[in-house]
Amino acid sequence: MFTIEHEFDATVVTLIDEAKGHRQEDITINAFEDCITIEQLDARTERVMKVTLSPGQLADLAAALDLPEGIYQRKAPT
Q: Which of 25, 46, 59, 78 makes the best surface tag, with the fewest CB within 10 Å?
């Protein structure tokens, strides 16, 4: 399950893990104009861990999900 919210400066997507076995903490993705942040609570430390991606890194990740093992480089937009 997931939610989508449009805020003033970002689109916020929250991914909710519904697995019955080893449920993970929710993940929050904030899409800003210049970067994308991914946040998740670390239950062991009670701290929110954050990863920041550039728009190019996010495009690489999206492309990688549908490709076989290997090394790739996206073409620059024309």
A: 78
- Enumerate the domain spans of the chain: 2-64
Calculate ∠ Cα 29-31-36, nearest 5°.
75
Phi and psi of 75, rounded to 5°?
Answer: -75, 140
CA distance 27 to 67: 24
Q: For the segment 40-65, what is each residue's pLDDT rounded down to a tens digit?
A: 999 999 999 999 999 999 989 988 88
Alpha-carbon radius of gyration of the chain: 15
- Nearest Cα to Cα of residue 51 among 65, 68, 36: 36
CA gap 11, 31 in Å, rounded = 5
Among the listed ranges 9-13, 38-42, 70-74, which one has the minimum average pLDDT value?
A: 70-74
